[in-house]
Write a structure and sequence with these properties.
Largest interface: A-B, 13 and 19 residues
Number of helices of chain A: 2
Order of helices and strands of chain A: EHEEHE
Radius of gyration of chain B: 34 Å
Largest sheet of chain A: 4 strands, antiparallel
Strand content of chain A: 25-35%
Oligomer: heterodimer
Structural class of chain A: alpha+beta
Helix content of chain B: 40-55%
Number of strands of chain A: 4
Strand order of the largest sheet of chain B: 10-22-21-20-11-18-19
Helix content of chain A: 25-40%
Chain lengths: 71, 623
């Protein structure tokens, strides 16, 4: 399953790239990409575990940049 | 952001009061309050990032610089720098937000709802939930939510969001309809042929969104540069602060102050944001013109286009055979055409079809007997006691029928009745009205070689090449031959980029082999979109020159941004090092430059001045 999220409060491209790399290491994440200019996060992961993985992604994002992810 | 303006104003008032007041203690309190008001969030972020071990964080560096100034007793400077930094940040954020909004507006072609017809009722649903075969209703003014076929109704469609083509297109029952265009006039009932995930509009958006991941050299350079720049400048600041005082008995105060300016300039923000923004903006701007670029790297390659190799049919020509002239001998032209159409009845050959389409007189194919297909030559048939021949030159020669030489380009179909020559019909695939202009425009963009590769006959291909002023023409090629030719051209040509432009359907291997593969007329063709690096949604060859122009401008803007930022930063570093620049200038070199670069990058979104007007737009306009 692939879903798009709005990601706010990204400070800079470097942070976005760093965050992208970090999120990519989360187990279960098939593919993740952050488009800084569209403030968009694309997450691809297994259907069955998607929401569990999303939770981990949210936590990681929150740790790096206290912002918000929205569908 | 609104809150920040408040803080900036309060801090400014406090700061100015402090400047004019005569009492030292009050002054100091006011300065510190102003500093706290305007800088607390920077300090807070700095502490937070420091805990995570992020030393080279912009906030941290600004905090060190200003706290350092406070420690040195430079209260006004510390406050002013923080204040200017925040003001600069504010404007930079606004500029960025505006450009983000513009990009978002460009990409706002994703339909939100579909009117699904179900059990006689119409429900407004998300396009994701609609399945293939469902019927959706599209009212005037609505965006087509999914790809499909019109089952009922007719309308005019605005396809400009997809192709950049402002001329509306007519659509009737039976026509394919592509998601993302806007229904202008009539109500349409459409049978969905693709799910939302596979629909054109989603494909286009995904393509553009992911284009940012394929980076051009300037972007990669910036990323590498940013990684070393900040540590190097910080190290330089440290050395500057302590080496002269320790080893050369200089005043620590003076050198520490200079070092603090270094810290202020040490963020590579201007570059890190503006260069990717330049490329992404350009990709967004191009997509508005119906040019899909699959990565920043392709823009870079395209800007160096040197050789353009064209496929002929469907790329430079219409791809439709048409009767262009009829040359009868001793009979009316309509009669010759009618006869040809009769003889070519039931043939599926494109040439036969074009003859039949051109003929408007009634035909009586039933009287035809003993029809014989002569593969590669034509056809023979009996009709009412006469023996007829229809076909090419060789067929006439074999039957010893004298025929005049025909100077017309294209395919020539000869006719004979018994031993009598009746005349011939010239059929050709016409050159697009825009092709000639496209070639001229390409030359103007610095393309040095234009090559035509085609499976067509030599004389036709050469005529096309001559009409359009192409440099080289290779005819009679099989798809594999085209690859070989492209490989040879690649080997011959070391300097620039080789671009191949084709319809993207039969030439996938060539598209892949060329430096850049451009598929034209790809609206609604997934295969073409898949195979190419750059996709022109409509089939106007002038778009290729426009794409090159866009690419060049993008690279120019990226270079301007890099150059400007590097020069200003280097100048301020040098001046600060020798004590000629203070922290104020350093702040400008940081946030001021960022803002200017972002504004400059935003220019890539504006493509109006570049669009394919009938005449070439003046190049000075955007220099």
């Amino acid at each position: 399953m692939k879903k798009y999220f709005h990601i706010s409060d990204l400070d800079c491209v470097i942070c976005a790239n760093a965050l992208e790399k970090k999120l990519d290491t989360i187990t279960g994440v098939k593919h993740v990409s952050i488009n800084y200019f569209l403030q968009q996060l694309t997450l691809e992961a297994d259907d069955a575990e998607f929401y569990a993985i999303l939770k981990r992604v949210r936590r990681a994002v929150d740790h790096s940049i206290p912002g918000a992810i929205l569908t | 952001m609104k809150r920040m303006i408040g803080f900036i104003i309060i801090a400014s008032i406090l700061f100015l009061t402090a400047v004019v007041l005569p009492y030292p203690v009050v002054k100091m309190v006011l300065y510190l309050t102003a500093y706290a008001v305007v800088g607390w969030d920077i300090l807070w972020k700095a502490v937070r990032n420091l805990i995570r071990g992020n030393v080279f964080d912009e906030n941290f560096l600004m905090s060190v610089a200003t706290v350092g100034a406070l420690v040195l007793g430079e209260y006004p400077e510390a406050v002013a720098v923080m204040l200017l930094y925040q003001i600069g940040e504010y404007f930079q954020k606004r500029a960025l937000q505006n450009s983000r909004r513009s990009i978002a507006a460009l990409m706002d072609i994703r339909p939100d709802t579909a009117n699904l017809e179900k059990d006689g009722k119409v429900l407004s649903v998300s396009p994701d939930t609609v399945t293939v075969g469902d019927i959706v209703l599209i009212k005037p003014g609505e965006r087509v939510p999914l790809d499909g076929v019109i089952v009922e109704g007719s309308s005019t469609l605005d396809i400009s969001a997809l192709t950049g083509e402002s001329l509306p297109r007519e659509a009737d029952a039976g026509d394919d309809i592509v998601s993302g265009c806007i229904n202008l006039t009539g109500v349409l009932r459409v049978s969905v042929t693709k799910t939302a995930q596979n629909s054109t509009v989603v494909k286009i958006l995904e393509l553009v969104e992911h284009a940012a991941q394929k980076k051009a050299h300037p972007e990669a350079f910036i990323t590498r540069f940013a990684r070393v720049y900040t540590p190097v400048v910080c190290a330089a600041a440290l050395l500057l602060a302590f080496v002269p005082p320790l080893f050369f008995a200089q005043d620590l105060r003076v050198w520490a102050e200079r070092a603090l300016s270094f810290l202020v300039v040490s963020c590579p923000c201007a570059l890190v944001i503006s260069v990717p923004l330049t490329f992404f903006g350009a990709i967004g701007g191009a997509s508005k013109n119906g040019i899909l670029v699959k990565g920043s790297n392709y823009l870079e390659l395209l800007s160096k286009a040197d050789t353009v190799v064209f496929d002929k049919t469907g790329t430079l020509t219409e791809g439709i055979f048409r009767v262009t002239s009829i040359h009868p001998q001793n009979l009316p032209p309509e009669e010759l055409l009618r006869l040809a159409a009769t003889l070519e009845s039931f043939s599926t050959h494109p040439i036969a079809q074009s003859i039949r389409t051109h003929n408007h007189l009634p035909v009586e194919p039933d009287t035809l007997t003993s029809i014989k297909e002569l593969q590669g030559y034509g056809r023979s048939a009996q009709n009412q006691g006469h023996q007829y021949l229809i076909g090419n030159q060789t067929l006439m020669e074999e039957h010893n029928i004298a025929f005049p030489y025909c100077p017309h380009s294209g395919v020539v179909v000869h006719l004979a009745e018994d031993d009598r020559y009746l005349g011939h019909i010239a059929i050709s695939d016409e050159i697009k009205a825009t092709s000639k202009e496209a070639i001229t425009a390409l030359r103007a963009e610095g393309v040095r070689h234009t090559v035509l590769l085609t499976g067509d006959r030599k004389d036709i291909a050469e005529q096309t090449g001559k009409d359009l002023g192409l440099d080289q023409v290779y005819a009679g090629l099989l798809p594999a031959d085209k690859v070989k030719h492209v490989e040879r051209l690649l080997a011959e040509n070391h300097s620039g980029t080789l671009v191949f432009a084709g319809d993207g359907i039969n030439d996938a291997p060539v598209l892949a082999r060329a430096d850049i593969g451009v598929a034209m007329g790809a609206l609604g063709s997934d295969a073409a979109v898949e195979a190419a690096d750059i996709v022109l949604m409509d089939d106007d060859p002038r778009k290729l020159a426009l794409a090159i122009r866009l690419a060049k401008r993008t690279l120019a803007i990226a270079r301007q941004n890099i150059g400007f930022a590097l020069i200003v930063k280097a100048a301020v570093l040098v001046l600060a090092g020798i004590g000629l620049a203070d922290m104020w200038m350093a702040v400008f070199a940081d946030v001021g430059v960022s803002m200017i670069d972002i504004l400059n990058a935003t220019r890539t979104l504006r493509t109006k001045a570049l669009s394919t007007a009938p005449n070439l737009p003046e190049r000075q306009e955007y220099r």
